[in-house]
Amino acid sequence: MRGAPLIPEPTDALLRRLVESRGAVPLGFELFPPRSAERREALRETVERLAPVAGKGFSVTMGAGGTTRTGTHDTAVEVARIAGRPVTAHLTALGLSREDALAAAEGFWEAGITRILALRGDRPRAVQGPLPPGFAHAADLVAALRDCHPFEISVAAYPEKHPEADTLEADIDHLKAKLDAGATSAVCQFVLDPEAYGRFLETCARHGIDAPIVPGLMPLEGWSRLRGFARENGAHVPDWLNHLFSQAEQAPETMPYLSAVATVEQARRLVGYGAPALHVYAMNRWPLALALARLLGH
């Protein structure tokens, strides 16, 4: 109605505050070793695009049983060279002997890669029979790495518990053991329900855990694949996301826009629950990850 007072603009809009914070919430981006020359070129472009907004740097995955050890090493070194940012190399121990796991760590150190995400990992599907004697638990790997060099060690955390854990409480006890062994932070498996991350932080605090716990954020592209992956790993799939993307299937042209909006909403809520940073599973792609960074003030 003409002459009616305007509704005042909200002064506590979280997304606005994030945009105006000039990147106060740091971002790190997870990559994986490429398997072809074409994909290596795509990875280089991704690193170049994301480096300016990667305050927490990059991380490079390793396949189950150390199957991409050489690729992980070479990719981590290349990413560090291109980006000029710190790089964390994943070290997946299950399937490797103690000697091979520590040799991989030594190779990282000699190449200037001083950050390691220490993982027990999954059993290699292609390997039949008993595995080489090695590190049965990630906490044992953390302790061994601490004895080798002054690595900056992070470990994995599972807000909705690891699929093999009996209970969430038992899984958090295991997380505490990894931190007590010498890790200084934890990176979470991605969640599709940010409230699960908030509850996880509260439960960890009750267990005396005060190390930074960084949530994993998966850009919501390729919903059918992502939903299947979430279910395999025991992550709750919210009804609203299912409804949103099922509607988008009727108009595929809208999918990129809905993916972007939903990803930003996930990030906003994770920050609202107290995320000290965001670990973005970039999947070697940069457009949505960079758009997210811009919306968060970077």
Q: Could you characterize the architecture of this molecule?
A:
Strands 1-2-3-4-5-6-7-8 form an 8-stranded parallel barrel, surrounded by 5 helices. The protein has helices spanning 14-20, 37-50, 69-83, 98-110, 138-148, 168-180, 194-206, 223-232, 239-248, 255-272, 287-295; strands spanning 27-31, 58-60, 87-92, 115-119, 152-157, 185-190, 213-217, 278-281. Strand 5, helix 6 (168-180) and strand 6 form a beta-alpha-beta unit. The relative contact order is 0.15. With 298 residues, it is an alpha/beta fold. It has a single domain (24-122, 130-295), classed as TIM Barrel. The two termini are 39 Å apart. The protein contains 11 helices and 8 strands.
Keywords for this structure?
298 residues; 11 helices; disordered N terminus; TIM Barrel; alpha/beta; eight-stranded parallel barrel; single chain
Summarize, please.
The chain is of the alpha/beta class.
Unreliable residue runs: 1-6
Overall body shape: globular
Number of helices: 11
Supply the CATH architecture.
Alpha-Beta Barrel
Distance between the termini: 39 Å
Number of domains: 1
Q: Describe the largest sheet.
A: 8 strands, parallel, barrel
Q: How big a fraction of the residues is strand?
A: 5-15%
Estimate the helix proportion, in percent: 40-55%
CATH topology: TIM Barrel
- The order of strands across the largest sheet is 1-2-3-4-5-6-7-8
Order of helices and strands: HEHEHEHEHEHEHEHHHEH
Structural class: alpha/beta
- CATH hierarchy, class: Alpha Beta
Task: Tell how many strands the DSSP assignment holds.
Answer: 8
Our Rg estimate from Cα atoms comes to: 20 Å
Average pLDDT, to the nearest integer? 90
GO molecular function: FAD binding; methylenetetrahydrofolate reductase (NADH) activity
GO cellular component, one term: cytosol
Pfam families: MTHFR
Family: Belongs to the methylenetetrahydrofolate reductase family.
